[in-house]
Amino acid sequence: IRLAGQPIEARVTEDIVRLGIAHVPDGRGTFVQLTTEENLRVGAMTRKDRAGVATDMDRMYHYFPRLRERRQQQAGTLSGGEQQMLAIARAMMLRPKLLVLDEPSFGLAPLVVQDIFRIMRTVNTEEKVSILLVEQNARLALEMAGRAYLLETGKVVLGGPAAQIRDDETVRRAYLGY
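^ thats the sequence. predicted structure below, dont judge the formating
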């Protein structure tokens, strides 16, 4: 596995982070004892540009206004949707080249999911951050993706342009339910 020609296998986590890979784990993964703002600062821990970190905090609060309202609130007391927003914002504080999202819609209200995916599209298109998305909501994932891979029991059974997979009648019937 390589990122921009650099091998990443057999590297320790902090070295992978320094390559510009940020991960939003399944189950949110916030630091529940820390405040929202402290969680965001943890995301920027490897950065040395204080002014840039402050600017990015404001940018995260722009993307996720609820986090600004709850910046002094302990992360463990946030709703599930707010914790997911915080996990994404914390990862974005790294200023990653690649953002890896594991089931970001899991257990969230549909409106929260729409907001999160709208923001992820913006991050991808305007900030030029590549996104690797693992998502069971195939319809939503195929709307966002440029390329897609369909997995069955851990094996790739289909891969290609997301629009082509989305428009494939067999895929639609078997996986998308329409």
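The beta strands are 2-3, 6-7, 21-24, 98-102, 130-134, 147-152, 155-161.
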